[in-house]
Amino acid sequence: MVGYTRRQAIVASSSFISASLLAAPSLGQGKSHVVIVGGGFGGASAARTLRDIAPDIDVTLVVATETFSTCPFSNLVIAGEIPMSQITFGYEALISAGVSVRRGVATRIDAARNMIVLDDGQELAYDRAIVSPGIDLKLDEVPGYDAAATEVMPHAWKAGAQTELLRDQLAAMPEGGTFLMSVPNNPYRCPPGPYERASLVAHFLGKSNPTAKIIILDGKDSFSKQPLFVEGWERLYPGMITHVPFAENGGVLNVDPAAMTIETAFETFKGDVVNFIPPQRAAEVLLRSGLGGNGDWCPIDEATFESPHAPGVHVLGDSAVVGDMPKSGFSAAVQGANCAHVVASLLRGTAAERGVLLNTCYSFVAPDYGISIAGVYRVNGEGRLASVKDAGGTSPVGANDGFRQSEADFARSWYTSLTHRIFG
């Protein structure tokens, strides 16, 4: 296969956004029913694509809330650059497209009976199910950090009320104070997300509180796009951001919300605002239903997204182990579209084609300073979604201001196009 350059991968990603994959013929038989759990990028993309390619399939989308707030661009909300309303979307367009949207929380997947059980006791029968409910936080993993602690030391790793809470705490931080962030070890949702957040917090503080400090306690020694972030920090926020890798902190042992401290193996750190991002796992409904096996994440057939523990149930997005693909909003959207084609083919009784999957991830180091990474993935001979050699890549180190501005502009266009394609 001819390799994609980073720019070609980004262009191909844009093509995904602007249109679905090639439409497949309708089933031409009695209607099948697909139930999709999760109204985020993965589930909504799957629902939208199924309506586009297979109008003879009935599609029910189960959503926990009336609107969906995106994790992408939520760091701009925290930094006061955009309002929460700009990253919040409803499901009216999907309903207009013929998707039946059902408000409720899925509590169990009964694969033996082909039923999704909801929190009100109702059951939804399916011929195939697609589940993309995101992640859950391991609030019992670190001593001192529980549900109550999230109201004092917000994680803001599920966009919504926590995003606004952290934004308000940041705005009220005392002059010369410390913004303390704790980042878990891999895997977790959006690998570069914490470092974008630190960057945009630094941008906000540079305008309103220039003597403040930011400390990042990391659960690992290196992170996504590190050379690009560090270059931006040294250039834009010299002396403000201190990154403490795992080798220098030894891991978090305890948190104390009352004292606003995080104790590590080597030192105890105190913050005026503490953003504690806990370890994560697949959504509870999936683990409760046995789709995780003995682990925290859900293995799948990486060509079809079907669970080995629940025939007829396809898992995608942040909860799934999807080869080399990162846990990102765009990954979930691409997987959702791809999975829709797979499910339509299986219901039609035809073989599903193995296509190329793409991911593009933009990060803001400042509102006018963007960086990106692009990846290309294909199922290899071992059945694994592996990175295509010499494809994709990151923004170049040492680029000029105009290039970084262009990347920031591309990021905004990418986000607008993606959300319009799915929710617009």
From TrEMBL:
Keyword terms of this UniProt record: FAD, Flavoprotein, Signal
GO MF annotation terms: flavin adenine dinucleotide binding; oxidoreductase activity
Domain Flavocytochrome c sulphide dehydrogenase flavin-binding: 356-423
Residue ranges occupied by any Sulfide dehydrogenase [flavocytochrome c] flavoprotein chain central domain in the UniProt entry: 163-278
InterPro entries the record matches: FAD/NAD-bd_sf (IPR036188), FAD/NAD-binding_dom (IPR023753), FAD/NAD-linked_Rdtase_dimer_sf (IPR016156), FCSD_central (IPR049386), FlavoCytC_S_DH_flav-bd (IPR015323), FlavoCytC_S_DH_flav-bd_sf (IPR037092), SQRD (IPR052541)
Signal peptide residue numbers: 1-23
Domain of life: Bacteria
Residue ranges occupied by any FAD/NAD(P)-binding domain in the UniProt entry: 33-145
Protein name: FAD-dependent oxidoreductase
